[in-house]
Amino acid sequence: MKTIQVIDDDNDLRENICGFLKESGYNVLSASNGLTGLQQAISHLPNLILCEIILPGMSGHELYKTLQQIKPTSTIPLIFVTSKNEKGDFRTSMNLGVDDFITKPIDYNELLNSVRARLDKLERLQHNNDNKFYALINNPLTGVFIYSKNKFDYVNETCAKIFGMQPSDFSNMSFNSIITGCDKRVVLKKIEDCVSKSQNAIHACFQASHYKEKHSVIIEMYAGYVNFRGTDSLVGYMTEMC
Asked: How many domains does one find in the chain?
């Protein structure tokens, strides 16, 4: 079920919009000002935002600009819902890159159609991006992994072969399980710092065991912190050093 955030200082109208969206099958978040709406959007990452332009404290335009500067919220579609219908205001909104613009009084059929159209477009884009992403990480020449919540979520065959294993062998394994040698603590600290967002990327070399041939291998790893499918993750690749 998709989640839609409604930000408007008109309490009656906001409640009417929220009620209509709930009846239409959506989860709903509600905020009465821009600052609260911003904090809520960052915390909950809604699928779409409906926002009034004129808001106390932080305007809709300021809110949108701020959301665009924050990576997890930068791709959330936003539709302005406002009583302002001057050409200048419309042009400003479009120049910012907002997805649509609906004026009050609200035609609820128009509102629902716009919401569905933006969500459908976002879903198609995400599907295309997922296909491109998995085509990349399944590259037989690169050992790619996805790591979150202290375990490997994905390891391609090339990466698994470095350790003499199959991708399925990595289920519920962590870096703590595969790193050996005196540099283990240092590398684990780098990974922890990256996952906790103290740094955005990591480059490290470490010793590991080849489980099939029972010898040591030296691994070079490059990885970056991303929000993948709503989860904080390390996505990167590993190669065996000669």
From this structure: 2
pTM value is 0.60
Q: What are phi and psi of 5, to 5 degrees?
A: -100, 130
Asked whether the beta carbons of 22 and 28 are under 8 A apart, the reply is yes
CA distances from 4 to 18, 81, 157, 229 (A): 9, 13, 39, 17
Among 135, 153, 168, the domain-final residue is: 135
**Residue among 31, 6, 40 at smallest CA distance from 21:** 6
- Kindly give the interhelix angle for 11-23 and 108-137, rounded to the nearest 10 degrees: 60
First-to-final CA distance of the chain: 49
Residues 64 and 148 in one domain: no
Question: 176 vs 1, 20, 214, 231, CA distance in Å?
Answer: 36, 50, 18, 20
Q: How far apart are CA 129 and CA 180, in angstroms?
A: 36
> Domain end: 118, 135, 152, which one?
135
- Segment 81-108 shows an average pLDDT of 70
- Pull the structure tokens for residue 229: 């499918």
State pLDDT tens for residues 39-92: 999 999 999 999 998 898 898 889 988 998 887 888 888 988 877 655 456 556
pLDDT of residue 99: 65
Q: Domain range for residue 85?
A: 3-135
Q: Residues near 102 by Cβ (< 8 Å), separated by ≥ 6?
A: 79, 80, 81, 82, 110, 111, 114
